[in-house]
Amino acid sequence: MNTKNKIKQLAQAHSPQFIRVRRHLHQHPELSFKEHHTCAYVRQQLMDIGITEIEVVAKTGLIATIKGEDSGKTILLRADMDALPIQEENVVEYASQNKGVMHACGHDVHMTSLLLTAKILWELRKEFSGTVKLLFQPGEEIMPGGATLVMKENSYKDLGSIPHLGQHVMPKLAVGKVGFRSGLFMASMDEIYISIIGKGGHAAVPEECIDPILIASHVIVAAQQVVSRMASPKTPSVLSFGRIIGDGANNVIPDRVVIEGTFRTYNEAWRTEAIEKLSKMVTSIVEGMGAECTINIPRGYPHLKNNPELTNAMKKGAIAYLGSDNVVDLDLWMAAEDFAYYSQQNPACFYLLGVGNMEKGITSGLHTPTFNIDESALEIGGGLMAWLAFESLA
Q1: Which of 145, 177, 222, 245 is the most buried (most CB within 10 A)?
Q2: Using alpha carbons only, what angle is made at residue 80 by residues 8 and 121, rounded to the nearest 5 degrees?
């Protein structure tokens, strides 16, 4: 039996065990940089497989090592570990037991898939040369991103520049399919925090007030010019505001309004320029209307770029494993991922794993309280990554 068929057979045979693993992880989600139970559980799973070379990184993350029969290349396979502050609404036996915390971005799937990959590679370790590093990374969901902390660890630095593979669940992609994109893939991400300080008072006497709510409305509308009129049409950009706090009342003008949002793009020079333009525009509008403001725009994740040579090779490997009908080309995705930090310094390939199933009603998007997956995706995700690791090491 050839290696590909061995991997498929092992993925199928072990998938029931790892469905149980996924459900345990889903029931016990933990927020970013608080993945203590998760870390201990993943470590035990690795040791149960037989893997003993395991190091703690970034306090709640792990790097495990599987060595092949002979020395050779090294490849890193990455999964993230943290959950989101969302109250789950799914009525399933494995629903989150931690109030207000949920694996709504599929990191439970990422971990489980990588554990299945580890199981397969461990059982086939005498059939490949080289070394596989398994990275279970904490804190992907919040800045500064767990990737930045992992990259400061000596155990990571000692690896040098090596291929990095990562996958992310995608409910818009049907189970059984995977998607690849060479070159630019995911956007950079900066957070925006604006506080407008006016003068509150009775809504019946607006002339005695400096209305921060009115000023905030001008700021939000005018700021869209950064994308619609200042950005090149050739450079994808997104400016969105998702939170406004103006704690007044129907007849009370508040003293302060807070606006929070995000800016995303694919061009680092334009990214810096856009933030400068936005800051100047906001300050000008606010001061021109008689108020004051503070602006804080912490720099977030860079854009994610897939190495063309590695990605094309991995796409061919996926076609060989799943068939051409099940491998699709992806468009740009304006979401952000701290895997981007790895991609800036290493040949990287970040691809999407289909987990949706319309017939079963599994259609909810990422970061929603009803997000779920078709669990048959675990067999595909774990087996495919094992096969791609074999392909890369060869």
Answers
A1: 145
A2: 30
